[in-house]
Specification:
The structure holds 2 protein chains of 2 kinds.
Chain A lengths: L8 H9 L5 H6 L2 E9 L7 E9 L2 E7 L11 E11 L1 E6 L27 H9 L1 E6 L7 E4 L1 E3 L6 H4 E3 L4 E4 L8 H40 L36 H7 L5 E5 L2 H13 L6 E5 L7 H7 L3 E2 L5 E5 L6 E5 H8 L3 E2 L10 H10 L4 H6 L3 H6 L17 E4 L10 E6 L2 E5 L4 H8 L34 H12 L17
Parallel strand pairs in A: 1-4, 5-6, 10-11, 11-12, 12-13, 13-16
Antiparallel strand pairs in A: 1-2, 2-3, 4-17, 6-8, 7-10, 8-9, 14-15, 17-18, 18-19
Chain B lengths: L1 H12 L37 E10 L7 E9 L2 E7 L9 E8 L1 E3 L33 H7 L2 E6 L7 E4 L1 E4 L6 H4 E3 L4 E4 L26 H20 L8 H8 L5 E4 L3 H13 L5 E4 L8 H7 L2 E4 L19 H7 L4 E3 L11 H10 L4 H8 L1 H6 L17 E4 L10 E6 L2 E4 L1
Parallel strand pairs in B: 1-4, 5-6, 10-11, 11-12, 12-13, 13-14
Antiparallel strand pairs in B: 1-2, 2-3, 4-15, 6-8, 7-10, 8-9, 15-16, 16-17
Helix pairs in contact in B: 4-5, 9-10
Classes of the chains: A alpha/beta, B alpha/beta.
């Protein structure tokens, strides 16, 4: 039975009966209704037997089924067996790119737009594990890296994927390959000192030009040409160069203009610390250049030792996917384990978890581990939804299921932190972009089914997951229960052929 | 235990695939000789020690019958003195946890496998003992213990065809073999696949003796295996054919000692099954058998037991790139194939043996089978189930204390009891 019960055919038929053009129903097809036995909104209490109405990609209504009037002609997804959950938010990643870093030290003129590969298997994994929003930044092997971007894992072009273009810059305090920490910091500080000197020189030069022009006009006894007025006074809380309004912004080299805009607080920065010793220099650097309000620390697993400094700076952190820091005493060789997120949670430092984006290290699993190590369930779930959304300035758009937010909804087979739960459907902006029953790779991993191309696959498996059945036609699926498959194995020839079948039971809907 | 015994019987009843006549020379194959009676021995030690530690839990998973909902475990000396249902109250003195399981047993911890533990004098060295090369000060012992693994099987590296004898040891306690060994020379270890011939190079110049022909291919490995067992059959009937270690090989053929061979790829698992059937090896286990899901029928038919390698996110495992499907454990369980999970010594929180059981559950395995696959089943496969592997009176007090339902992603090991001592908390 199709998951998308279609009700559009009815009005179309009805309108033809009465000789009316079906324009109204065409407009209504932008509305999708999601039903779930339980909705975990991440914005208040769970809703039992709830519905989510998504109109034009945004949530237009959410609540108990009894309280919400759903459009009678909208397709319906889900059902009472599902748990609805907001799409996970990956606070920081440098995967999905051709190469995460350039060889040069300071490259703010680059843009990850030119490096993101929309068909990279990483983005397929994101759909599979329910990550619907990703902050793609360049890698940590840099001094100042290029412009990042917030994307969703759907679309065949970078533009289609984009949620926020030209978002944020990566700065690293940990040594880039071939550097020591000393040269790394020297390079970083010199970059911004040079910027300041450059701008000061430009202002001086502009003053001289201005003076010359004024005297020239005076000598020639004419009025001065009107100023083009393209300059802007410099903003920024760290340092400013007086008189920058005399300099046209277009005359500033594009290689340093992004740096100026960072100092002015126009861009977010993600400052990577690869060891506790990087933390205080990072804070000093951010303070000196006025980045404290716009910077987020990206910390490795050992940086918990500098948590007090981070707390004092007021900055938030994005954690490494390895959350258990193991340290061996150099003398006694005794090992101590520190569960990193708990440290930040205890200090009250806002933190976001990140994943290695595999089944066992995806964001659900990271949050589950946090609960296992004693963290409050709400805090653990927030660290993979609302906290990263807030860190990225998208708190009003993603991370929770509320009216006005993007229609990014996961339909799970159970509780998000349960070992046996799976993402059955991923919905982004109201569009179903992942359906586990059609996920060949997942079947291969779970049941040992040969991947696409290795053997003939049944016709319905060749559909792309993004195909949405809106014509209401149920395609027959070749089903075999697991018992049947294992019986074939028992015959001693269950080599491969028995596994081509869809061994998953299609979820029956009302 | 019944499952294992019946599988062993099946193997005996299977017609031999062997076409070479040596049946007359073969000794009558003895039944599986594990002592099944010891389990039921009551705590009738001559000098009962006083109870020194009492731990209560909301749930006790004994791996030996039903779960006890609310109960206490009393420990005297190094063993379990009493398991009492009920009587859990929060104001009681002593430790209280959410759940208790037996200590885990890892048959493939890969803890001692440094390169220097590979014997190169011959490809068949049954007389070597892994314990002679084990480093009890390796920090990985503590990691294993901390994550709940209380007993492991230490084996020689899989770089020889028949690599030597293994031992079951505890992961903690005094750093002496005497205090840690549960069962010396527990099993014989062998290897199929590319590892057995890895690093070997063809003989340069004229081969002068048997040892110069160390296998460089899978064919060579298989040949070495069969030659070793045929030589053993000959040695068992002809005094002048005896060779060093023949008696150990003979004990495998008689079923007195389990034979554990590494075989990851489908072809290697098949080879192992054919070897088992050809020589009627009663008690044989394939280790790191990632692709067991491709041949569950053959495994069931031959009575072979299985040790699965750790699950990987992309399915591919380290040994011979074998593909381990996530429902492999369930498939084997449904067919009655005895299987154990293993960690290969991973220290990361997502790779430990406790998590492997969780992944198997994610792949469809029932909780009870998952619990057995890291406790009582590996204990049986190594022949140490009389001492460890389940929670029962008289058994070693090796316990894992949990913060919640065992193997759930939201639970973790909060404490480990080894030989009656609370070693981590």
């Amino acid at each position: 039975m199709s998951l998308l019960r279609n009700r559009t055919l009815v009005p179309i038929a009805a309108s033809f009966l009465f000789g009316i053009l079906p324009s109204a129903s065409a407009a209504a097809s932008d509305t999708v209704v999601i039903e779930a036995g339980r909705i975990i909104t991440q914005a208040g209490d769970d809703i039992i037997d709830g519905v989510i109405v998504i109109t034009d990609g945004r949530i237009s209504a959410i609540g108990a089924a009894a309280d919400i009037e759903t459009p009678w002609d909208a397709p319906v997804m889900g059902g009472p067996d599902y748990t609805a959950f907001p799409g996970f938010v990956e606070a920081h990643t440098n995967r999905g790119m051709d190469r995460p870093n350039e060889n040069l030290d300071v490259t703010p003129f680059l843009n990850v737009r030119d490096s993101i590969d929309p068909v990279n298997a990483y983005f397929e994994d994101c759909k599979r594990w329910g990550v619907t929003t990703l902050n793609v930044q360049q890698g940590n092997n840099t001094v100042v890296a290029g412009n990042g971007r917030i994307v969703k894992p759907v679309g065949v072009t970078v533009e289609e994927m984009t949620i926020r273009p030209d978002f944020g810059y990566k700065i690293s305090l940990a040594p880039k390959g071939g550097k020591s920490r000393a040269t790394q910091r020297q390079t970083l500080n010199r970059t911004f000192n040079d910027l300041r000197d450059n701008l000061t020189n430009m202002v001086e030069s502009a003053k001289q030009d201005e003076d010359f022009a004024r005297r020239e006009a005076l000598g020639q006894g004419r009025e001065r040409d009107a100023d083009e007025g393209e300059g802007r006074a410099m903003l920024g809380t760290g340092w400013t160069v007086d008189g920058l309004e005399m300099v046209k912004r277009s005359s500033i080299d594009e290689k340093v203009l992004p740096l100026l805009e960072m100092v002015e607080g126009r861009h977010r920065t993600f400052i990577y610390c690869g060891a506790p010793m990087d933390v205080q220099p990072a804070i000093d650097f951010a303070t000196m250049n006025g980045l404290l309000g716009t910077a987020t620390l990206v910390v490795d697993d050992s940086c918990w030792k500098a948590a007090d400094a981070i707390k004092a700076s007021g900055m938030s952190v994005i954690l490494d996917s390895n959350m258990l820091h193991i340290e061996r005493d150099p003398v006694t060789e005794e090992e101590t384990e520190t569960f990193v997120p708990s440290v930040y949670a205890e200090k009250g430092i806002p933190f976001a978890l990140t994943s290695a984006n595999q089944s066992t290290n995806s964001l659900w699993f990271q949050a589950a581990l946090c609960v296992g190590y004693g963290m409050d369930r709400g805090a653990a779930l927030a660290a993979v939804t609302t906290t990263p959304a807030d860190l990225l300035g998208l708190g009003e758009v993603v991370g929770s299921l509320e009216v006005g937010h993007a229609g990014n909804v996961l339909l799970l087979s159970g509780d998000p932190l349960d070992m046996t739960s799976w993402v059955e459907y991923t919905v982004i902006d109201g569009e179903k972009i992942y359906d586990r029953s059609k996920d060949i790779r997942n079947k291969h991993l779970l049941y040992g089914v040969e991947p696409r191309g290795a053997t003939a696959i049944e016709s319905d498996a060749s559909e792309t997951p993004s195909d949405i059945e809106v014509d209401g036609v149920d395609k027959p699926t070749d089903e075999a229960t697991e018992e049947e498959v294992t019986e074939e194995h028992a015959d001693g020839h269950g080599d491969d052929h028995g596994d081509e079948k869809e061994v998953e039971e299609t979820v029956k809907k009302d | 235990m019944n499952t294992i015994l019946s599988l062993g019987a099946t193997a005996l009843a299977t017609p031999l695939l062997c076409v070479i006549s040596s049946a007359s020379e073969r000794p009558p194959v003895a039944p599986v000789i594990w002592d099944t009676e010891v389990e039921t021995v009551e705590a009738s030690a001559p000098k009962p020690e006083p109870v020194k530690l009492v731990i209560s839990a909301d749930a006790i998973y004994t791996a030996d019958g039903d779960m006890i909902k609310g109960g206490t475990i009393a420990i005297a000396g190094t063993t379990i003195a009493a398991v009492t249902p009920g009587g859990v109250s929060s104001d009681e003195d002593g430790l209280h946890v959410a759940a208790i399981t037996p200590g885990f047993i890892d048959l493939s911890p890969r803890i001692n496998l440094a390169d220097f533990s590979v014997e190169e004098s011959s490809e068949v060295v049954p007389y070597l003992r892994a314990t002679d090369a084990v480093d009890l000060y390796d920090p990985r012992w503590t990691r294993l213990l901390r994550s709940g693994t209380t007993s492991v099987l230490i084996s020689p590296a899989a770089e020889d065809v028949v690599g030597g004898m293994t031992s079951v040891v505890k992961t903690g306690g005094d750093p002496t073999l005497e205090s840690r060994e549960v069962l010396a020379n527990a099993t014989l270890a062998g290897s199929f696949g590319s590892h057995a011939s890895r690093g070997n190079s063809p003989v340069r110049g004229r081969p002068t003796n048997h040892f110069a022909r160390r296998p460089t291919t899978r064919m060579g490995t298989e040949w070495s295996h069969r030659k070793a067992f045929y030589d053993t059959l000959a040695a068992m009937s002809h005094e002048d054919r005896k060779f060093e270690g023949w008696d150990i090989m003979a004990s495998v053929l008689k079923g007195e000692r389990p034979y554990i061979v590494q075989a990851s790829a489908t072809q290697d698992i098949r080879t192992a099954i054919y070897l088992k059937e050809e020589f009627s090896i009663p008690n044989m286990t394939v280790d790191a058998a990632a692709e067991a899901w491709r041949e569950p029928g053959l495994l069931a038919r031959s009575g072979m037991s299985v040790i699965l390698p750790p699950f990987s996110a992309q399915g591919r495992t380290a040994i011979d790139n074998g593909f381990l499907s996530w429902n492999c454990a369930k498939t084997l369980g449904d067919l009655g194939v005895a299987f154990a999970l293993s960690s290969h010594g991973s220290a990361s929180p997502s790779g430990r043996l406790a998590m492997q059981a969780g992944y198997a559950i994610r792949g469809g395995l029932s909780f009870e089978d998952a619990l057995a696959s890291v406790t009582i089943t590996p204990a049986r496969l190594a022949g140490v189930d009389s001492r460890v592997g389940s929670i029962a009176v008289g058994k070693d007090a090796d316990l894992v204390l949990w913060s919640g339902k065992p193997f759930a992603a939201t639970s973790r090991v909060v404490g480990v009891v080894l030989n009656g001592e609370l070693v981590t908390q």
